[in-house]
Amino acid sequence: MSVENIPMSAxxxxxxxxxxxxxxxxxxxxxxxxxxxxxxxxxxxxxxxxVCKTENMWGTVKVYASGGENGLHAHTxxxxxxxxxxxxxxxxxxxxxxxxxxxxxxxxxxxxxYYCFNATSKEPLVLFRVGCHTEEAKDKSLPxxxxxxxGSMPGxxxxxxxxxxxxxxxYSDEWFE
Length: 177
Known about the structure:
This protein has helices spanning 10-18, 21-28; strands at residues 39-44, 46-53, 57-64, 73-75, 78-86, 89-92, 98-101, 106-109, 116-119, 125-133, 145-147, 170-176. The chain is mainly β. It is globular and about 55 Å long.
């Protein structure tokens, strides 16, 4: 969103146009971060390729030959979303609900939303994942991920060794472009 499109009240808008606030904001504004989602495809296993990052938000290209994401879990300190760039996936919720997501479709997962997914296509699944810290990110005592029973589920949890993580990583000669 450009500086001109930031929503403001009429009074704030007038003060901004005629005051020093606009000049101060423009002088300290961050620069754009350009990135590519080009990544190597896999025959087996999965990859996570970070492609962009700011203080509060990040983007990762994830490639799955088959299988999917960990056991059912929720992130407690971030909102995030997945966009399917190639292939298709089935997302699962905590009450047995499912939703199939295809190319150029996605899912937004607010903090605390339980989910897991599996690739459903014959071709490798390529996802673009964008995450954003929530206020809870400041709470160091709160686990970053919870299993369905409410217990901590860190990255090295046994449930994470299932599916695509369990398969050895073998790259193909193809690239996602």
